[in-house]
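Journal club prep — side note

Before the paper discussion, L.F. wants everyone to see what a predicted structure for a comparable chain looks like in token form. Sequence:
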Amino acid sequence: MSTEILALLALLPIAAVALLLVVLRWPASRAMPICYVVAVALALGVWQVPLVQVTAASLKGIVVALELLYIIFGAILLLNTVRESGGLQSIRQSFRNISPDRRVQVIIVAWLFGSFIEGSAGFGTPAAVAVPLLVGLGFPALSAVIAGMMIQCTPVSFGAVGTPILIGVSTGLAGQGTIDEFAIHAGFENGRELLSLIGLRVACLHAIAGTLVPLFVIATMTRIFGVQRSFSEGLRLWPFALFAACAMTVPYVLVAWLLGPEFPSLLGGLIGLAIVIPAAKYGFLVPRGDQVWDFPPAGDWPSDWMGSTSVQPVADHGRQPGLFVAWLPYLIVALLLVVTRLKSLPGLELSPQALCTCVTIPLKNLLGTDISREVVPLYLPGTVFIVASICTFVLHRMHLRDYATAWKASGRTIVAASVALIFTVPMVQVFINSEAGSAGYPEMPLALASGVKDVVGNAWPLMATFIGGVGAAVAGSNTVSNMMFALFQYDVGVMLGVDPVWIIALQAVGGAAGNTICVHNVVAASAVVGLIGKEGLVIRKTLPLFTYYALLTGMIGYLTVWWLHAPP
């Protein structure tokens, strides 16, 4: 079978997702079972993957889906706990004290706080934290989900303390060997030198494209959710949006240059918060008076805007925690996410990461195949959210009946998301575990990438970001996309006679951008606020940002490898 036809067949599961979710606007709970059947039919009928392999991949997908549901449940529980305690009242007031303008609020919460959380935890955690927090501040659920998904680009390459680079790219390039062996063969001193160079180039590409992301977010928000339905209402805040963007991206690049791939997003987001919040409180570039922008009255919101969480009023039990105590649950989340990812503590012979990973549930060689999964419950962000919820119960001096209400409401909400995820993630696992077929074809993602390469030829740098993005959108992870495609992208660069390190950087950037249109990330973010059935609508709204991001960075990569660093 020709490479092009094989690529078209490999495209079918992705095309089915696009058709059913985005074009026909089916809810994910209805569309994803069909997409799963398409992937299974291709694996069995064309790739001739053994049934036991497909079943094992599906089982792994169910396990991953349960992990995601655990994270979602924890995020919902924390939001409901803070609501029932009355803490959301104080948090909402604190943001009004910074600025009542919703455009300013979404930049601070989604862009800056979200980048910090992404840098510390990954796992799609920013959406699980920022989206419900925005809803708690009075944002429509749909607006919160779109904003939470749109910022899932710039910080993602350095999420979870650099995992997409340090684990994703490293594992993808090393193959059966080590990254040091690969780097020395490629002319570098060691793997760290190679990964640091890739990280710096990724950071520079992200900084160029990412500087416009806050402006993109607020313009989209005012266009869809404003009374005037106007892009211009968002664009008018361009000075503050660019200021807030640079407050994150400038230290982000400097950290990538000076410290390496672990901390650009974490420190970039934290430094950005330290710069922007005081500046906003002081009134720097912040609108005042009749220039303040807000949503229409909640009573005028269409039903499409609202999830089951957003329509619940904030509890008022005659008590309201002070500002610092109200914010403590989110400070606890941020602190625990950072500390549990540390390999050591200064001055102590203690590894928080090792402590959290000492409890594991190994699922090795499922059904006798080479497909495995290791569940580490204490390391999952869901555990952090639940611990923060328990701390909130104590710190906010809640009544037991109010805390029980938070648990019951969270349980009801999580059930609605389960159907979509239970089919979405197994579809992904069947798609990426299709290399063991007797037909001898490469796994579906590589078959798709190979077909695109044969068609575009020397224009590959323009497509490298899109391949990385599609990989992340399907797999739900920039790290997994880099594992699948890093070596392939490197080899294409070598074949073209251009600097292959730039091609890998384009892969990593595209993989980060792909998170903005990732189906199971959208399902998870929507489930946190009870916005079930609108997944295709969310992807329709985030797709322009993904296209901009992948196209701009692809064009920069093309110009760089063919003009600025043209081979002699």
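L.F.'s comment for the group: The two ends are 37 Å apart (CA to CA). Keep this in mind when we get to the figures.
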